[in-house]
Amino acid sequence: MKYTTKSIIIGRMKRKSKEDLAYPCFITMFDINDPHKSGKVPKKIVEFENIDKIIIDRFRINYLLAGNDIVINDLEYINIEKKKDTIIVSGKQG
User: Fold this and answer.
1) Is the dihedral of CA 34, 72, 79, 44 positive or negative?
2) Does the predicted TM-score (pTM) go above 0.85?
C-alpha cells in the first residue's frame, strides 16, 4: 500500500509469548523529519503480527540505539508490502 509521508519510524513490539519466533512490529508515519525529537503524535500507525524480517529498499536510514528503532527522513512516499512473514518498505526519498 502507498502512503504519502515525510518520515517514518520502524520498530518491533514485544512478543505475546516467549515461545513465538516472530515479532509484531509497527511503522509510524509523520509529517515532519526527526519525529523522535518532537514528541508529536504520528499521523498514521500500521501494525503487523508475526514478522520475521523487514526489508528496507534504497533509503538512507538512522538507527536509534536508545529504542532500537529505525528512522527514515526526507520521504515523499513509501510503499509497504507484506509477503508471508516479511515486510518490504520502498518508496521515494528526497
Assistant:
1) negative
2) yes
Residue 85 CB neighbour total at 10 angstroms:
14
Q: What is the DSSP letter of 36?
A: G
Cell of 77: 512516499
- Residue 93, all three cell numbers: 526519498
Domains in the chain: boundaries: 2-93
CB atoms under 10 Å from CB of 94, counted, come to 7
Read off the pLDDT of residues 56-91 as tens digits, 9 standing for 90 and up: 999 999 999 988 899 999 999 999 999 999 999 999
Give the residue carrying C-alpha cell 536508545. 66
pLDDT digits (tens, 9 = 90+) for 13-40: 998 888 888 899 999 999 999 999 998 9
